[in-house]
TrEMBL record:
Assigned keywords, A-Z: Membrane, Transmembrane, Transmembrane helix, Transport
Compartments where found: Membrane
Mode of membrane association: Multi-pass membrane protein
GO molecular function, one term: transmembrane transporter activity
Protein name in UniProt: Tetracycline resistance MFS efflux pump
TM region positions: 12-37, 49-70, 82-101, 107-128, 140-162, 168-188, 228-247, 253-274, 286-303, 309-331, 343-363, 383-402
Record domain Major facilitator superfamily (MFS) profile: where: 11-406
Coiled-coil intervals: none
Pfam families assigned to the protein according to its UniProt record, in alphabetical order: MFS_1
Function: Resistance to tetracycline by an active tetracycline efflux. This is an energy-dependent process that decreases the accumulation of the antibiotic in whole cells. This protein functions as a metal-tetracycline/H(+) antiporter.
Chief subcellular location: membrane
Length: 408
C-alpha cells in the first residue's frame, strides 16, 4: 500500500479488512448456490441454469434500486452507519437462506441479499473520501485485492463445507458477516466530514436520478459506458461459471471452490501488486485500454478451452483485465465533488445492477441453448465468447477516449 499516503492509510486498511470479510462471507456460498437452486428446481441442469439466471437477475434488480439509496444516505449520514447496517442485514439474510426449505424461501433470501450487498458502493465512496485523486487508482486496486482475497478464501471454504452439507456455507457466511459488523462497529472510523455532507433527496436517490449524474461531463458518460459493458461481460462469471465447470470438466464443489480461489489469488496479485505501478507508468486511460484488450483474450480462452488444464491457463490471462475497474473508477471520481462521491458510486452500482438484470438472463439463456441436446450446435463456452464481444465494444470506446485525450 505504498501508493497511499500515510494519513488515510489506516482508514483504507479498515475498509480493506471490512470489505475482505464481507466478500469472504459472500464468496462462501458461490460453489453451492447454483447446485442448490438446481436441486430445488427439480435437478434438470438446463432448467436449473435458467432458474438460477432469474435468481441472479432479481438479486441485481434489488441492487439497482438499493445502491443509489444507500449512496445518497451515506452522503447525508456518513459511510459508517450504512456499511454497518448492511453487514448486519447480510448476516441475518444468510441465516434465512440456510434455513430455506424450498425454492421460494431461497428466492426471498436472494432478494434481501441484493439489498444488503449494495454496501459495496458505499465502500467505494469511502475510498474516494480518504484518498487524493492521484492515489485513487491504487486505492481502488487495494479494494480489488480485498475482493480477490475474499474470493480466494470464501469459495475454497464454501467448496469444502458444501461437500459436507450444502446449507453449511450459509451458516458460515452468516457468522462472518455478523463478526464483520461487530468489527466495524469498534474500529471503522467515519470518512465523510460533516461539511461535505449533502441533504438526502429522493429525486437523486432513485436509480434514474442517480444515473443523471453521469451526464454532467462527457468523459464521465464515456467512462460509464465502458464500465457498463465490461461489467456486463463479467457477469458471465456469477451466472454460468460454476455450472460451466461442473458440466464441461465434471468438477465437483471442492474442485470448483479451489479454482475460484485461484482466480482470487491471481486477481489479488494483479490489483494489489501491479495496479499502482502500471497506472502510474502508463496512465489511467492506457492501463484501461490494455486491461480491456487482455480481457478479450481471456474470455476467448475460457470459451474455447476443451479441457480443464486449458481453462486454468486462462485464469492468469483474465486476471490482467483487473486494471480496468480501478482505472475507470479513478477517472470517474475526479469528475464529481466530494459531496457527490456516494451518489456517483450509487450510480455506478445502479449500472452494475442493470448489467446484473440483463447479464444473467443473457448468459444463462445462451448457456442453456448451447448445451441443449436438441440444438444442432453444441458450444458450452458460448457465454464466454459473447462476453469477449461485449469487451471488444468497451475496448473500442476506451481506444477513442485515449485517442481524444492524446490529441488535446
Amino acid at each position: 500500500m505504498s501508493n497511499i499516503s500515510a494519513a488515510p492509510r489506516a482508514a483504507v486498511i479498515f475498509i480493506f479488512i471490512t470489505v475482505c470479510i464481507d466478500i469472504i462471507s459472500f464468496g462462501i456460498i458461490i460453489p453451492v448456490l447454483p447446485h442448490l437452486v438446481t436441486t430445488f428446481a427439480g435437478g434438470d441442469i438446463a432448467h436449473g441454469a435458467r432458474v438460477y439466471g432469474v435468481f441472479t437477475t432479481v438479486w441485481a434488480l434489488m441492487q439497482f434500486f438499493s445502491s443509489p439509496i444507500l449512496g445518497a444516505l451515506s452522503d447525508r449520514f456518513g459511510r459508517r452507519p450504512v456499511i454497518l447496517l448492511s453487514c448486519v442485514g447480510m448476516g441475518l439474510d444468510f441465516i434465512l437462506m440456510a434455513m430455506a426449505p424450498n425454492l421460494a424461501w431461497l428466492f426471498v433470501g436472494r432478494m434481501i441479499s441484493g439489498i444488503t450487498a449494495a454496501n459495496f458502493s458505499t465502500a467505494s465512496a469511502y475510498i474516494a473520501d480518504v484518498t487524493s485523486p492521484d492515489k485513487r487508482a491504487a486505492a481502488f486496486g487495494m479494494l480489488g485485492v480485498a475482493f480477490g482475497i475474499g474470493f480466494v478464501i470464501g469459495p475454497a471454504i464454501g467448496g469444502l463445507l458444501g461437500s459436507i452439507d450444502p446449507h453449511l456455507p450459509f451458516w458460515a457466511g452468516a457468522v462472518l458477516a455478523l463478526i464483520n459488523a461487530a468489527y466495524g462497529y469498534f474500529v471503522l472510523p467515519e470518512s465523510l466530514a460533516p461539511e461535505h455532507r449533502s441533504a438526502f433527496s429522493w429525486r437523486k436517490a432513485n436509480p434514474l436520478g442517480a444515473l443523471k449524474l453521469l451526464r454532467v461531463h462527457p468523459e464521465l458518460m464515456s467512462m460509464a459506458s465502458i464500465n457498463f459493458l465490461s461489467q456486463l461481460a463479467q457477469s458471465v462469471y456469477s451466472t454460468v461459471i460454476v455450472l460451466y465447470m461442473g458440466y464441461r470438466y465434471s468438477w465437483d464443489a471442492g474442485q470448483i471452490g479451489m479454482t475460484l480461489a485461484l482466480v482470487g489469488v491471481c486477481s489479488a496479485i494483479v490489483q494489489g501488486g501491479l495496479t499502482g505501478p502500471v497506472v502510474r507508468y502508463f496512465g489511467e486511460r492506457h492501463a484501461l485500454l490494455f486491461s480491456l484488450l487482455i480481457g478479450i483474450a481471456g474470455f476467448v480462452i475460457f470459451g474455447l478451452s476443451s479441457t480443464g488444464i486449458l481453462f486454468l491457463c486462462g485464469i492468469p490471462v483474465i486476471a490482467l483485465s483487473g486494471f480496468a475497474n480501478p482505472a475507470v473508477q479513478s477517472l470517474m471520481t475526479q469528475r464529481v465533488l466530494p459531496s457527490e462521491q456516494g451518489l456517483l458510486q450509487g450510480a455506478n452500482a445502479a449500472l452494475i445492477g442493470i448489467t446484473g438484470m440483463i447479464g444473467p438472463i443473457l448468459f444463462s439463456e445462451t448457456y442453456a441453448r448451447f448445451i441443449d441436446p436438441d440444438n444442432t450446435v453444441h458450444l458450452p463456452g458460448a457465454p464466454f465468447l459473447l462476453a469477449a464481444v461485449l469487451m471488444t465494444v468497451a475496448a473500442f470506446i476506451a481506444w477513442r477516449a485515449v485517442r481524444v485525450n492524446s490529441a488535446r
